[in-house]
Each structure stands twice: as structure tokens, then as C-alpha cells.
Amino acid sequence: MYYFRSRIYGPNLIDVPVKPYMQLLFEEVLNPFYVFQVFSIILWSIDDYYVYAICIFILSIISISISLYETRKQSVILHNMARLVTNVTIRRNSGVEECVNSLELVPGDCLIIPQEGLLLPCDAALLAGECLVNESMLTGESLPVLKTPLLAGERKFSSESERRHTLFCGTQLIQAKGGGLRGDCAIAVVTSTGFFTAKGNLVSSILYPQPINFRFYRDAAIFLIILAAVIGTIYSIVVLFRAKVTVAQLVIRSLDIVTIVVPPALPAALTAGTIYAQNRLKRHGVFCISPPRINVFGKVSLCCFDKTGTLTEEGLDVWGVMEGGPTGFSELVPEPRLLLPGPMLSGLACCHTVTLLRGQTLGEPLELKMVESTGWTLQEPEGDGKVLDAEFGHHKVLAVMRPPAPHLQAQGASISEAVAIVQRFPFSSALQRMSVVTVACEGRSAFAFIKGSPEMVVSLCRAETVPEHFSSKLHSFSSEGLRVLALGYKPLDSKLHVNATVFVHREEVEKDMQFLGLLMMKNLVKPESANVINTLRLAHLRSVMATGDNILTAVNVAKSCGMILSKEKVIFVNATPHTDESRPTLMFSLEDEEASGTQSSIITQVGRSGFDYHLAIEGKSFASLCEHFPEYLPKVLMRATVFARMLPDQKTQLVKEFQKLNYRVSMCGDGANDCGALQAADVGVSLSEAEASVASTFTSKTENISCVPLLIREGRCSLVTSFSVFRYMALYSLIQFCSVLILYTMHTTLGDWQFLFFDLPLVTLLVFVMGKGGPSNELHPCRPPASLLSLPVLASIFLHTCMIFLGQLGALLITTSQDWYIPLNSTVFGKENLPNMENFSVFGLSGFQYIIIAVVVTKGYPHKKPLYYNGKLAKIEYMKLFNSLLWSNSDYIKTVGLA
């Protein structure tokens, strides 16, 4: 059996080959730019520009060598990261444990995970026991995650929908417990190997990144092709044909014009702005794994934010507890530890996935606060766990919650007793709930507890146990910005299967529950959030919120951070799907008012001038809207600000729907449920302690959204710099065009050293001085353009070209009109006529044109600081350039014989 599976799936290996230098060299030389450079060097050599050709050849060799070194270095790093080979213990058909190399793993193998954990070499579904896993490599989450056993059922397994039960390749399993015969290990079944694992997909995305569909890069290529292949070549052929040069000279000179269009410094020039921006961002604690995306951030028009941990504080404080039942709600209890012993207190103490690691409690901040507020302590089995198992009726105990000492419990109340957790059903974003199965000492009084969103928990509780005023209470607490969780419970049959890993199915546990009450927690807005949202608003950038929390809580947070102003109304969108009893409906309701149909007075009010409003919609309504009312979807998206109860997949879909409306979307989040949206967005920002999250392009070490305006400013600065540099390189080519074509007309050309001086010391230095300027301190309402083939850009280049041509022509005419002018020899052509006065006049003026144009096209306001902010570097370098140009002209005057 193993033989056939191994033949089908192959070795469990993520093989990233490290290519030899010769192969890399061959691939690098085939790069279009280097192919063009080889063509240019051959052409220059034929035309006797030996010095220039040798210099460019040396520079190309250095550039290729650096590129080969960096490429191989990255390849080695990726190879070492991807290659994970270790020894693991498995069980196959015989049921006997054997130690094998991880390369031999195939789907279907039963993997034994030791108590001390391991670095997982495959994807696996957890069957027995629990595992504490560090998944920061995949999600950027800094907190370990508790994985629980997969539930039995006939549904098809999916690692995405069963993330809480799936162990992903490349993640560090910190500890395992509760599985196997001795209880000191966990058992999992291999589901995917090699490139089909989560780590394999990650490596594939690094090897084959998603292409950047950005207009600037596309227009740059088109502009260069038109300039080189059409304008330059045709015009030079006409001029040279009229000069009656030979066919060989005609071909060489025409092709030489093409080499002028793509100067050697062009690739470095176009990346200068992004490299400077990336370094500045790193100093601010923002890391970027794809520098070209910095330019894309400059065109962002919509910023999408997660709520919890992004706009609001991650850590929550318990605000109060309110028990409920058929007779209504009790008085608010400020602290759970003040509750009388009973199901509510036990549910708060037990319904969680908090675990112990070396004596320290670990888990989600909300659950840690909840457990801490009860005063109960967590105990986990040690060794084989038989001591605790015996204490609780020989059930397989996962954890024990023990109440505080009697003198610390509420006065006059009966003493609470310890409770053992024997089964967990972890929280799921899709299900919006979690539950546990518990037993008391000696295995008596088994209970199931459930905790989750109030709407979901109530739907699973018997109607007669839910208080009559549940909806109004929930509305009241949510409107105050509190995070509300509901709890329920029910007694279970005490005759549970002893020593069984799975006692009951989740579907059986989570039905016919009894409503217990509400837990309210404070969800404070981070102090930086309001300032950032206001900055984006003043810059005419739209902000929206996508969260899994209650819609009223989300609206309250949106008002607190300034997404919704106090004078603006909120309209709730409620869409229902098609059912056997009713057709799909779409309803709108003003805040604090009853729902109304689409043709109601609300629509009339929306159309009224001066009626400022925002739409708010929940995930279920969003799904129904997309499916049954697609014609209304763009209209809702254009005015919606709050998207609540959104599942991870719905967040991803939301980003894509905004992109269909031609928004450039940035997504900012901090959790694993944001990974899909972070990857789908044009640019994603992860707020995580990890230095770089693989789900997003940008990762900030500052755990608030203050990095978003910084990234937009840097993106705009980089984009403006790229525009300026490209315009400069285009005008630089046009300056050289004009110089060469004017000199062609006079039967001469530029010399070898003159080309070298312009292309390398002068222009390259100017480009890097242009790119050094930082972003403006303020975010301006207007956004920089992203199209090079626009009327303003083309008109600017055309006007500059006219001035350049007239300036050089004027210098030539002034020179030829002087008494000391000595005409050149008209019987020869090209370099044979050097040195001459025509060459000197055009060369001298064009050198200053390069510097002046660099100053002119280096646009500052409103997205970039002016050129003089570059500091001493710009001043010193420009003085050096002017002096070198003057000295070179002086030497040339002596050579010609004019001094």
C-alpha cells in the first residue's frame, strides 16, 4: 500500500534547486536589458567607441556579478528554508511504530507527535490529543495557537475550513499532550506533502510572485519603444540619408540612436526612489518584502481596516456579567468572581482554549482576561495523566479548572468544586462559537458549555430559556461599544464512554442549549486610530472597517475613531436569501428605526441634498446581496463604511469587489483571519511582532495604524520620484538625440569620452541625488498620476524638447557667427572631424542642460520635499558637477586651440 502511495505522491520534499553560476549567468545574460547592452557594446565597438564600450562592458560585468551573487544568495536562503528533513515516528498498516525519514512520508501515514514537539515536515490533521503550535511563520501571529482533534464525520476534509484541527508544514509544535495510550503525545494523519503543503504554497508564491499590474511600468515600456523604435530611428535615417553617408554608416548611426534611448543607468535610475523609500521605512520599523509595491501604495484610494487589535486594543477588560433566564436578566455583576457558584461561573471558567506552557498561561487575550476575572486556576495533566483521570471518573482529562480557596469565594455561597475539561470544540470564525464538555469529580454531572456571538448562541438555545428583552439589552450594550459574548449550557448524559477520545459530536452538543447570560468586555479604541482616520479623511482617502464583531459595536468604534462623524447618519442594510417560504429581500433601516423596503422614505431621504450617511452591513447580508441583488452591490459598496460579522473569505471577497470598482485597496490587519484579504489587496499591511509576515507586502513593528499615512506618503514620494527620474531619463535621451542629430547635420558627432562623461559620472550621480529626497510631512488631498502617456506628461516633455533643441541650435548658430569661428572639414564625417567648434558648443551647452533639467523635473510639492532638503549631498554634488563640466570645457577649448 505504501509503495503505491509513494509512487503517486513522490518524496515529501520542497525542492528549491540552487542553480550553478553558469546557468544563472546564462539566464541573466538572456535578460532583455543585458541582451540590449551586448548589442550596444558590439555596435559601439564597430563604430570605434572603444573606451566607452570597454567602460560599459566593465560596468555590465560588475552589475551581472552582483546580480548573480544576490540571486544565488537568495536561492540558497530559500533552499535552506524550504528543505526540511528530519526523523519522525509513524504508524502504517501494521500499526507498529517505526522511525523513518520525513522524506518518506505520504498522505495517510499516522504521525506520532512527541510531547516536546517538533518542526512539522508536512500538513497533518490532528486525530488525538492537543498541540500548542507557533504559526508565526505562516500568519505573523505572535501568540501560540492550541490545536484540537478533528471531529468524526462524513464531510470532506479541508485544511482551510478546519484550521483549528490542522497542523501546517513548517510550523513549530511547541508541545503535545493527551493522545496515544500514555497520553504524552499527540496523533495526526498526514494530509499533504511537498509543494502541496501550506509551506509549499508559500515557497511557490515566493518563486512565482503575483505580477504587479501597475500602469506606470507598462507605460514606461511603451514610451521607450515608441521613442527608440519610431521617432529616433526614422529621424536619424532621414538626416543621415540627406548627408549622403554610406549604407554601413547609415545602419550603424541609426542603430546608435536606439542605444541612446536606453542608457546604461536606466534600471538603477528607475529603482532609486523605491530603494531610498524602503530604507526610510525600515528606520521607522516598517519592513517591505516587495519594493515595487511601494509605488503602488502611492495610488491607494481606499484603506480597509480590521477592528480588534488594529483600530482597537487587543487586550480587553471585563466590564460586567449579566445572567439571564426565562424570567429576564439579573442585575449587572461587575466582576465574574462575585458570581454565586453555578453554571454561569463554571462556563466562564471552563469555556476556553487557554493552555499552560512551562507554568505560564497562554491563549487569546480575550479568553485570558475572562479566566483571570473568575479567579479560577488552570491545571493540566502531568506525565501519563492517570492521576487526574482517576480523580474525574477515569475520563481522559485535557485540563482542570479549580476554584479559588474557600475564603476567597463569595460570602454565604456554597463552595464551588473543580471541573475537568474532557473535550473541546475550538472557536471557529465560520461558526462564531466554541464549546467544551466538562465533568465534575468522580465523573458525575457532565455539562456542555457554549460561548460565542450572542446571535449565534441564542439560535442554538431553547427559545423558552432566552430572556424576553434579549434583543434590547444586546442593542444597548453593543451601542455603547462593548464587546458582548453570550454563554449557554446543558446537562449531558453522565454515561460517557470511559477513556474515549471523542465522547460526543459537536452537532449533538451545540443544540437545545439553555441560555446562561452575557459577558461584556471593553474594547477601547487605540489612541492613534482617530488621528490616522482624520488624516486619511482630510486627504480624501476613504476608510472602511471589516470585522467579525457585532454590527452595533463596529458602528460605535467607527464613530469613536472618526470613520463616521457625529452629524452623519447610519443606514443598516439587511438582505435575506431565498428560502422555501419567502423570496430574497433587501431592506434599509435608519439607526434606531424600524427596517424599511428599498422604495421607502429612507431612499427618498438619501437622495435629499445635505443628507450625509454611511451604510453598515453584516456578513450574511453581504453574501445575500452578492448572490441575489448584484445590481445593488456597487451602490452599497460606494457608501458602505462598516462591514460586520464578516468571515475571512468574505473579507477577501470584499477587497476584490472594491477592486472591481477601480479602487486601489490597502488592507491593514493583525490576525490569521485577515490573511486572505491581506494577500488579495493591492498592498497589505500586517501589524505583527514578526519582522515580516508572508501574508502581506508590508509589516509594521508598531502595533497601530500610524504606519498607514507614512506608507502612503512614502509611496507617493517614490511614485513622484519614479516619474521625475523617468522624465529626466527621457529628456536626457532627447538632449543626446538633439546633440547627435544636430552634429550629424554638421558632419560630426560626440566623442568617446564625451559620451562616457554624460552617461556615467554626470547623469548617474544626478539621478541618485534626485531620488534621495524624502516625502512631505503632510498627506495632500490630490494623488500623483500613474500614467506616463498622459497629456500633461507628454506636453511637458515636448515643450522641454523644443527648448532643448532651440538652445543647442542657438549655441551652434552663435558659435558659427563669431569672427574666430573655424569651419570643420565637410569632406569627412563623424569622429574624423574631431575636435571642432561645433562639437564644443553643443557639448558644453548640453552638459548644463542635463543639470538644469534635473532640477526642473525633480518635482517636490505636494508629495515630496523640495530638492534643497536633500541636504549637503545635493549641494556638494551639484557644485562638483558644475566644476567638472567647466574644467572639461576648459580642457577641450585648449585642445581645439581657442585658448
UniProtKB/TrEMBL annotation:
UniProt keyword ATP-binding, yes or no: yes
GO biological process, one term: regulation of mitochondrion organization
Membrane-protein topology: Multi-pass membrane protein
Principal location: membrane
A GO term from the CC aspect: late endosome membrane
Gene3D superfamilies hit by this protein: Calcium-transporting ATPase, cytoplasmic domain N, Calcium-transporting ATPase, cytoplasmic transduction domain A, Calcium-transporting ATPase, transmembrane domain, HAD superfamily/HAD-like
GO molecular function: ATP binding; ATP hydrolysis activity; ATPase-coupled monoatomic cation transmembrane transporter activity; metal ion binding; P-type transmembrane transporter activity; polyamine transmembrane transporter activity
Domain of life of the native organism: Eukaryota
Family membership noted in the UniProt record: Belongs to the cation transport ATPase (P-type) (TC 3.A.3) family. Type V subfamily.
UniProt-recorded name of the protein: ATPase cation transporting 13A2
Source organism of the structure: Mastacembelus armatus (zig-zag eel)
Organismal lineage: Eukaryota, Metazoa, Chordata, Craniata, Vertebrata
